[in-house]
Write a structure and sequence with these properties.
The complex is a heterodimer. By secondary structure, chain A is of the alpha+beta class. Chain A has a single domain, classed as Ferrous iron transport protein A (FeoA) (SH3 type barrels, Roll), CATH 2.30.30.90. In chain A, about 20% of the residues lie in helices and about 40% in strands. Chain A has helices spanning about 1-5, 35-40, 75-80; strands spanning about 10-15, 25-30, 50-55, 65, 70-75, 80-85. A 6-stranded antiparallel sheet of chain A has the order 1-6-2-3-4-5. The two termini of chain A are about 20 Å apart. Chain B starts with a strand and ends with a helix. Helices cover about 60% and strands about 10% of the residues of chain B. In chain B, strand 5 (about 85-90), helix 3 (about 95-105) and strand 6 form a beta-alpha-beta unit. Chain B is α/β, with parallel strands linked by helices. The chains are: A alpha+beta, B alpha/beta. Chains A and B meet through helix 2 and strand 5 of A and helix 3, helix 8, helix 12 and strand 10 of B.
């Protein structure tokens, strides 16, 4: 919770899960296990990556995100541990 | 001397299209010992020199720990190919360049194949090949599926690079020299370097793609589309297979007569064993299994090529996640509806080992289309006159719903007991929708899936035919062994609401589920009689449940063994559905 309160440089630091469809952010930190972090890094998702929340699936989870020109689906569980800076 | 070539690239960049264009149909499955995925091998000749190419599995990097990455990295290390072709997606350079940068540092003879140029053109993207070539210090060949010549240029470029003399190499399609500035970087910087380079070499004013996902993942449209497609495939498979199956059977009958004349010199018993036992069983299995598979798999591959399958996996993810699995298992179940053996092989798409095992062990809980005819027949018996048309469709839908619920429940139990473990993270790339390549699609689905599955089916059908023949002929004390066995099974069968005849038919239809009813009629001694005589209402209900849940067919068991190489998991894959079926049938039997 404390980590979330720390204000980012340009906007509020939030979790990726909190982005609503249509909102953008820049990844600041990943609070995930090493294996998960590296599997996301392979797709090009890491600190500094600009990310757009595209749409939620009909059952509400997972959510589709777009970064580096690719659409990737993530579950809430992982998205909740990825911190982003976003202008609100 | 052979020149060895390897093709590397991210998933979804059209790498197999390039591979097929280079090698034509001269391919064979590699005997390279990648446990999960082995590269396909192919060859071609140009100007008297032979080229042999390996199609490495699609990867994002070589340093990660996924099975595909290990296979690709190990192959490159063990075989050190003369030329390495890196296939990039011209419409998504930012994503695909990272691998090219990584491989640039690894291999001296790199050819960059800038694929999907036709799609890039449609989207208004104009990559600067000269700048890309200079930055990567490698020849760049733009290729497009609608222009065969572009692959010819790729072959010639590979040939130029394969020549040992550096003078020849300089004359290649390379348009610049010198190591590109700022290229490379550490593992973490790979993506950033790729982004920077992609920005530098991508020109034009890109138009956005049409947003098909608004439909395929839309709140109100996604499920109806998914269910309609699934239903459409089944309708076409079940309906479309009837006629070719009948034709095949007639053809095999004629061939059998010809064989009988050919074998007329043999003793009568041996001729009967060969023809009425082995040949008849094998011919029957081929005739009933080939047409549905030849319809189902191309249709399924069509959805795969379109890019629909990842969307379906995404749609299904939530309920599976609740059971400790992921949406990809839902896809394997859909494949299992066509054939459980293919469903089991399809489980390779599940990255987490425990999740994958759980999906493999439960795949046979989904009825393959070999069990549909039995279920449709039983629908007629149970529902009476209402059991045709809509009634039968409703009955089948109920069967599917039951099978889905039991699969989810069993998966959840497995994931909390013998396959306990932290769930893997679910990361699923959604490639853009693409126009499928029909020719390749047919070849792949027919050769890869249909023929392989059929091959396995035949290897078991032949000996099983001999056993059934023997059981039918041997009659110690005047009663055929089949009848004796059926009587012996009666008490056990009664516990689960079946008759000995039916249970024996279930055992003997191990080679192919389609054989259940014909075998039951044969055991009962009524030949081509009325199947209704075999069932009362309770036995029909129990038979329907047992048709849904019993041991997988021999082809599926063989496939499970091939995939797991473990006696323990193969045995469990037989015991789990059998146990579920026996329990449910005993329950139904108690209630009725």
């Amino acid at each position: 919770m404390l980590q979330r309160m720390i204000a980012g440089g340009l906007g509020m630091e939030r979790t990726l899960e909190e982005l609503r469809p249509g909102e953008r952010g820049t990844v600041t930190r990943l609070l995930l296990a090493t294996a998960q972090t590296s599997s996301l890094a392979r797709l090009g998702l890491g600190p500094g990556t600009e990310i757009l929340c595209l749409r939620r699936t009909p059952l509400g989870d997972p959510t589709v995100y777009r970064f580096r020109g690719t659409d990737v689906a993530l579950r809430r569980r992982e998205a909740g541990r990825i911190l982003v800076n976003s202008e609100e | 001397m052979k020149v060895s070539v390897a093709l590397a690239g991210n998933p979804n960049v059209g790498k197999s299209t390039v591979f097929n264009a280079l090698t034509g149909l001269r391919q064979h499955t590699g005997n390279w010992t990648g446990k999960t995925v082995g590269p396909a091998m192919g060859c071609w000749a140009l100007a008297g020199i032979d080229y042999e190419a390996a199609d490495l599995p699609g990867v994002y990097s070589l340093t990660g720990g996924t099975p595909e990455e290990r296979v690709a990295a190990e192959y490159l290390e063990a075989h050190s190919p003369d030329v390495l072709v890196v296939v990039l997606d011209a419409t998504a350079l930012e994503r695909t360049l990272a691998l090219a940068l990584e491989l640039r540092a690894l291999h001296p003879n790199l050819v960059i194949c800038l694929n999907l140029m036709d799609e890039a053109e449609r989207l208004g993207i104009e990559p600067d090949c000269a700048a890309l070539s200079q930055a990567l210090d490698a020849p760049v060949v733009p290729t497009r599926a609608d222009e065969k010549r572009s692959y010819e240029i790729l072959r010639h470029t590979i040939a130029l690079l394969a020549k040992p003399s550096p003078a020849c190499r300089e004359g290649g399609a390379r348009s610049g020299g010198g190591v590109g500035g700022g290229v490379g970087g550490g593992v973490g910087g790979g993506a950033e370097a790729a982004s920077a380079l992609a920005r530098r070499v991508t020109g034009g004013t890109p138009r956005p793609r049409r947003d098909w996902d608004r439909l395929f993942l839309g709140k109100w449209t996604a499920w109806p589309i998914f269910l309609a497609l699934l239903f459409g495939i089944f309708f076409l498979t079940v309906r479309g297979a009837n006629l070719p199956s009948a034709l095949l059977e007639a053809g095999f009958d004629r061939l059998g007569l010809a064989l009988a004349r050919l074998l007329s010199g043999l003793p009568a018993w041996l001729r009967s064993l060969l023809l009425e036992g082995i040949y008849a069983a094998t011919a029957k299995v081929v005739a009933v299994m080939l047409p549905p598979m030849a319809i189902f798999f191309p249709l399924f591959s069509l959805l795969e090529d379109l890019g629909f399958l990842p969307r379906a996996a995404l749609l299904l993810d939530r309920p599976f996640a609740a059971c400790g699995s992921c949406g990809r298992q839902g896809l394997c179940m859909c494949m299992g509806l066509g054939c459980n053996a293919v469903g089991v092989t399809g489980c390779r798409i599940i990255p987490d080992e425990r999740e994958r095992l759980a999906a493999m062990l439960t795949n046979a809980l989904v009825p393959c289309n070999g069990r549909f005819p039995t279920l449709i027949l039983l629908a007629g018996l149970i529902l009476g006159r209402a059991g045709s048309g809509l009634g039968a469709a409703a009955f089948l839908t109920g069967c599917m719903a039951l099978s889905g619920a039991v699969t989810l429940l069993t998966t959840a139990i497995l994931r909390r007991t013998i396959l306990r473990g932290e769930g893997a993270s679910f990361v699923l790339e959604l490639p853009p929708f693409r126009k499928p390549r029909l020719g390749q699609l047919l070849v792949r689905s027919l050769l890869d899936r249909t023929i392989r599955v059929l091959g396995r089916a035949v290897t078991v059908a032949a000996p099983a035919g001999a056993v059934i023949w023997l059981l039918g002929r041997l009659s110690p004390g005047g009663t055929p062994l089949l009848t004796l066995l059926a009587r012996g099974l009666d008490p056990a069968a009664a516990c689960i609401g079946l008759t000995g005849t039916l249970l024996l038919a279930f055992f003997l239809s191990f080679p192919a589920n389609e054989l259940l009813i014909p075998l039951a009629l044969m055991i009962a001694g009524t030949g081509a009689g009325d199947p209704a005589a075999l069932f009362s209402l309770p036995t029909a209900l129990c038979a329907a449940v047992f048709t849904l849940f019993h041991w997988p067919c021999s082809t599926t068991v063989l496939t499970l063994w091939h995939e797991t190489r473990s006696l323990k998991w193969t045995t469990l894959s037989v015991l789990i559905p059998t146990g579920v079926g026996a329990l449910l049938c005993a329950g139904v039997n108690l209630v009725l």
